[in-house]
Structure to design on (144 residues):
């Protein structure tokens, strides 16, 4: 069986339509369709999305092993739904990264900058004590 066939098998076992599966994974519908018909192979972003919903990537790529990750490694469909962004926090993270880059006369490729902002945002979301300045300092040390 092909990768596309295994993706289709997973979707059928979950009882999802193609548009529901693409939405769950955060993958454009047309791209998802191409995966299922083997017109395109999933890249790193898509593989991460498949793993985040509990698909065993080894099985997906090779057909070896179980379809799903162990129960404690899976993300339920209800928790896989993206949470609304905290726009104030996101703005804070973008401004902090931009400021630090300017201050240190540094530049990042757009994808790298987006990754740093995403990382900072996630750290700030997990910061129970709301010490964003300490979080920013830690993340920006990674940038430097």
């Amino acid at each position: 069986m092909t990768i596309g066939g295994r993706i289709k098998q997973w979707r059928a076992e979950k009882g999802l339509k193609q548009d529901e599966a693409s939405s769950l994974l955060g993958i454009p519908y047309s791209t998802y369709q191409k995966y299922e018909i083997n017109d395109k192979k999933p890249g790193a972003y898509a593989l991460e999305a498949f793993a985040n919903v509990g698909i065993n990537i080894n099985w997906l790529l090779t057909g070896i092993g179980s379809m799903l990750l162990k129960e404690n490694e899976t993300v339920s469909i209800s928790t896989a739904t993206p949470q609304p962004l905290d726009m104030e926090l996101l703005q804070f993270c973008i401004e902090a990264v931009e400021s630090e880059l300017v201050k240190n006369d540094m530049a990042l490729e757009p994808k790298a900058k987006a990754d740093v902002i995403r990382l900072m945002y996630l750290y700030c979301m997990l910061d129970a004590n709301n010490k964003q300045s300490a979080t920013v300092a830690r993340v920006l040390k990674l940038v430097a």
About this structure: The CA atoms of residues 5 and 57 lie 14 Å apart. The chain has a mean pLDDT of 80.
